[in-house]
Amino acid sequence: MMWRRHFGVRLSLLSALFVAAALRPAIADNDFAAQRRDMVEEIAAVARSAAAESGKPAISAAVTAALARVPRHRFVPPDQEHAAYENRPLPIGFGQTISQPYIVALMTDLMRVEPNHVVLEVGTGSGYQAAVLAELAQSVCTIEIIEPLAVEAQRRLQQQGYTRVRTKTGDGYYGWEDCGPFDSIIVTAAASHVPPPLIRQLKPGGRMVIPVGTAFLTQHLLLVAKNTDGTIVTRQVLPVRFVPLTGGH
């Protein structure tokens, strides 16, 4: 009958629209997957060229695989999605940035995260670094002092299925004692010195990666190693530029 034919046509058109709508995110995700592969290749090239300064001619296979899995475009504001996989920092609001991919890769690699590790991140930002760490560690504790960023990062991390990440709003200078002690610590903002509370919460044999210096002046990425006897050894890795660590301290 005629009404059946019209109904069938309308149903077919409706089905086609649903299929098209379902395919759009998949197509976009495929495009981002290609950009993510290019980003990983660029990180490898930068690591080779910076080897003399950083002491790291290559990023470990585990860290590289983590970077290849995490959808960075989900951790930047919508107006920055187009640049999510470029090797440069991006603004995320409130005067904060998401670090350039090479620096994320280098700092993560220096931490030497193992699958049974508990790690601390000071400065959640958009949640991207925490997501990368969650691909490698048993659990991640991350602190953000700017409440709207902390809330949004928690939402993003949950939405992307990173259930091994615990988030907290607070002053990261003092660490997160109830969540530690930690096998490794990463600080994603520049401090004027290495915070003593973080040293105390680092396990013997643990490592901390932190930019130290003042805003708009020289900053250096430091690798802080805590020996099994509790003594501390530090090494400058390379000059960097980070937003300052803020808080009541």
Structural write-up:
It is a single chain. This protein has 249 residues and is an alpha/beta fold. The protein has a single domain (30-240), classed as Rossmann fold (3-Layer(aba) Sandwich). It contains seven helices and nine strands; from the N terminus they run αααββαβαβαββαβββ. Strands 5-4-3-6-7-8-9 form a seven-stranded mixed β-sheet. A two-stranded antiparallel sheet has the order 1-2. A hairpin with a 2-residue loop joins strand 1 (90-93) and strand 2. The longest helix has 48 residues, at 2-49. The protein is globular and about 50 Å long. Mean pLDDT is 89; it is low at 1-27.
Question: Domains counted in the coordinates: how many?
Answer: 1
Oligomer: single chain
Query: Can you summarize the main beta sheet?
Result: 7 strands, mixed
How much is the average pLDDT?
Answer: 89
Number of helices: 7
- In one word, what is the shape? globular
Brief digest:
By secondary structure, the protein is an alpha/beta fold. It has helices spanning 2-49, 51-54, 61-69, 101-111, 128-134, 147-159, 196-201, and strands at 90-93, 96-98, 118-122, 139-144, 165-169, 182-187, 202-213, 219-226, 232-240.
